[in-house]
């Protein structure tokens, strides 16, 4: 049964629910609808970074495992044209840009535990019109299910009363071998292009080829050779449009284990966790330092409202947003 994980400053409880099946066990907290712990039978450590207590999630653990939105990633200057009008959104990144839906984005909110059984959990959130500057009251439901494979599948549904922006992402930091860094992990991403960014991580314009850059993961790359080089925190362009059925967007391998990531989304933000600094002990008893995990965030492209050629992030009234992201775990070949 779900249990109390902690209490927020305003007295609201944060709940924790655990699901299991097919050798996989996953725990979630209502704060951020976050994947807090992920265990595979026969593996002696969590496959994601997380904390055993609530307090770190309010500070250094912000966004760890969370479902982020209503607009994941960044919007330049917090400004966006929506339905012919310019909207000023929250500017929570250095007072200049919108990041992950704003200072009260979904990744920092305490969701409702809507449904739970042994192999599935559903969490829900409601954003009123004007929340973080966005038009349109929005209902969101995120459902995690464990399926044969074993597979952890996330389905996100959202609707809005008015034309708005909608772009969600799952923000777990993965570490498959339990080492202090992901240096020995091999990453493959079938993206031919990426989005160059400025110093604020805002896209500069048109996609550029990954060929010859540190972001070329079309063949398996051992991350240790690149972690000391240019920053890895970019949108890799899987496609120019969303799909109704998931496609393979990444493969991560380490410690004899392979995770295959499939998603309906046309972008994958790859972030190598360079900002992580040791603080509170994680679920396996040690703090997380630089490059302790890698985030693979399936999403639409950042700053799309300011780039008409990017895949659209507009959600119309009565339209159903549906994202499916599938994490499959297998022995590494």
Structural class, please?
mainly beta
Total of helices: 0
Shape: globular
Quick check: average pLDDT?
97
Helical content, roughly? under 10%
CATH topology, what is it called? Beta-galactosidase, Chain A, domain 5
Rg over CA atoms, rounded to whole Å, is 18 Å
Give a count of the beta strands, DSSP E runs of length 2 or more: 27
Point out poorly predicted stretches.
Answer: none
Q: How much beta, percentage-wise?
A: 35-45%
**Widest β-sheet, arrangement of strands:** 10-11-12-13-27-23-22-17-20
The CATH class turns out to be Mainly Beta
CATH architecture: Distorted Sandwich
The end-to-end span amounts to 37 Å
InterPro entries: Aldose_1-epimerase, Aldose_1/G6P_1-epimerase, Gal_mutarotase_sf_dom, Galactose_mutarotase-like, GH-type_carb-bd
Protein name: Aldose 1-epimerase
Pathway: Carbohydrate metabolism; hexose metabolism
EC number: 5.1.3.3
